[in-house]
Write a structure and sequence with these properties.
Layout lengths: L13 E5 L6 H8 L10 E3 L2 E3 L5 H7 L1 E4 L11 H8 L11 H13 L16 H13 L5 E5 L7 H16 L3 E5 L3 H7 L2 E6 L2 E7 L5 H9 L17 E10 L2 E10 L3 E6 L5 H8 L7 E6 L2 E3 L4 H6 L2 E4 L3 H5 L6 H12 L7 H14 L16 H14 L4 E5 L7 H15 L5 E5 L3 H7 L2 E6 L2 E7 L5 H8 L5
Parallel strand pairs: 1-6, 1-7, 4-5, 5-6, 11-16, 11-17, 14-15, 15-16
Antiparallel strand pairs: 2-3, 7-8, 9-10, 9-12, 12-13, 17-18
Helix pairs in contact: 3-4, 3-5, 12-13, 12-14, 13-14, 14-15
């Protein structure tokens, strides 16, 4: 909910929008984009007051284009078809001129230096490629204002550089950009001004050339927040999970991996290095074709996610909305789904469920109106907590977390880290943390596995390595 927020955007500037999850950022950009209707106040575009009841299509016709964090793509259509439907108008006629559609798509993608097969199905694209496609669609429109909601959350360093170069060209053309991100260093690099929201209020608008990061964080949170420090793991009592010589269609070379009790194993690398594929393999979402998996020293056959859950393995996927949650179901149902998967019966006593859900909501501080609220209306940080909470209810001993803090604010991020540290304090517990954020890996991991070209190319002690060393290894090709 917003409370008489004032916000302005100048031609040719990047105006960053900051605040914790739930501060009002999404509400504000949805009002600007026509997705939400304001209860009061005015919207002025190019010096003229416009009807605040305008819809997203009318907003785009005005030149206000939004790239949302949650993709608005049609998965079973091709890249070219998605561009044609949303990015440009096809030639008039009874039949579709496919050569023309494909050529238009190639031209749109060339503008952002994004080489990809325009006939590829969107459902087969990685998260990073879907993000770049959304950007291409937005840029193919004649935009006066572009709203970018966490545009780099799933991009590699090289892709981010391409995006920032593109933003520079847009600024030179006089296009104003509203830029929402939780990456403060990134905002300092690309932004001109920043507006900080907290609890629906406009706290401050600052010139980013003069603003200090610590001061911005204080405005966001309302207090000073200490950066989470790596905690020493409890005494380790042996190996919890081991992969020996594992291969499948994604890994032509054998994968060997060991996860010890009471430790956080970080897995990092560039986009496309094979991190998510390895996480899916350990969870049974992708089947192994050779090699062995051992759990507490005993060989196991993880043939499916359901089998992994029964064995005590939980998975927080990179695409939390698409693969981690049932968005139209309530917090209650999402929290108990994994628990039910471990039961032989298909029902749960309602009284026991209510007590269990209430305890979980309170213990990990899920912020929701009530247990029945649909999770699609929660902030990113609270969605992550719901996924985390369902694995706690299922009493998992191993958690595989794929980009667990992508797109969430610094306050929620610390809460996730606290949950991770609290989890591994229990006997025979361990966490596999997959992240492309090297700072995050160095902050909380005990050991780091670096992936490149779908292979593990280095194993390092997180307390003895450096960001530079991790980047160097991640850019090497496996031999």
């Amino acid at each position: 909910m917003l409370k008489k927020v004032n916000f302005d955007l100048r031609k040719g500037e990047v105006h960053a929008l900051l605040g914790e999850n739930g501060a009002g950022k999404s509400t504000l950009i949805k009002i600007i984009s026509g997705a939400y209707k304001p209860d009061s106040g005015t919207v002025i575009f190019q010096g003229r007051e416009i009807d605040p009841r305008y819809n997203p299509k009318e907003a785009e016709d005005l030149g206000i284009v939004t790239i949302y964090q949650n993709f608005h793509l049609i998965p079973h259509l091709s890249v070219a078809e998605n561009l044609a439907i949303r990015g440009f108008t096809a030639e008039r006629g009874t039949l579709v001129n496919w050569p023309w559609v494909y050529q238009q798509a190639k031209t749109a993608l060339q503008k952002i230096n994004f080489p990809i097969d325009v006939k590829a199905k969107v459902k087969d694209l990685s998260v990073a490629k879907k993000q770049m496609l959304e950007i291409a669609i937005a840029l193919s429109k004649r935009a006066e204002i572009i709203i970018m909601d966490e545009p780099t959350a799933a991009l590699s360093k090289k892709e981010i550089e391409v995006l920032f170069e593109m933003i520079g060209h847009l600024k030179a053309q006089g296009i104003g950009i509203i830029y929402v991100s939780h990456k403060l260093e990134e905002i300092k690099q690309i932004g001109d001004r920043v507006t900080v929201l907290r609890d629906g209020n406009n706290i401050a608008t600052l010139d980013l050339r003069q603003a200090e990061l610590r001061g911005i964080i204080r405005l966001m949170i309302g207090r000073d927040v200490a950066i989470a420090q790596k905690q020493k793991a409890a005494a380790r009592s042996g190996t919890v999970l081991a992969l020996r010589g594992v291969k499948n269609q994604h890994f032509s070379r054998p994968i060997d991996l060991t996860v010890r009790a009471n430790e956080i194993v970080g897995i990092t690398g560039l986009v496309g290095a094979g991190k998510t594929e390895l996480a899916r393999l350990m969870f049974g979402a992708d089947k192994i074709e050779a090699g062995n998996i051992y759990l507490l020293g005993k060989e196991v056959n993880i043939t499916s996610p359901r089998r992994a859950v029964k064995l005590g393995i939980g998975y927080l996927p990179e695409d939390r909305d698409g693969n981690g949650l049932c968005l139209n179901m309530g917090v209650r149902e999402n929290l108990t789904l994994a628990f039910l998967a471990k039961l032989k019966r298909i029902f749960l006593d309602r009284l026991s469920e209510t007590r269990l859900v209430k305890e979980t909501i309170n213990s990990i501080r899920i912020r929701a109106r009530n247990a029945s609220q649909q999770v699609k209306y929660l902030s990113g940080g609270n969605k992550q907590k719901v996924i985390f909470g369902k694995w706690l209810e299922a009493d998992c001993r191993i958690l595989i977390l794929d980009e667990p803090t992508m797109g969430i604010d610094i306050g929620a991020r610390k809460e996730i880290y606290d949950l991770v540290h609290g989890f591994i304090e229990k006997p025979q517990r361990a966490v596999v943390l997959v992240s492309s954020d090297i700072n995050e890996i160095l902050e909380i991991a005990d050991r780091v596995l670096v992936m490149s070209d779908h292979s593990i190319v280095a194993e390092l002690n997180a307390r003895e390595t450096s960001k530079q060393e991790l980047v160097e290894y991640s850019m090497r090709l496996s031999s």
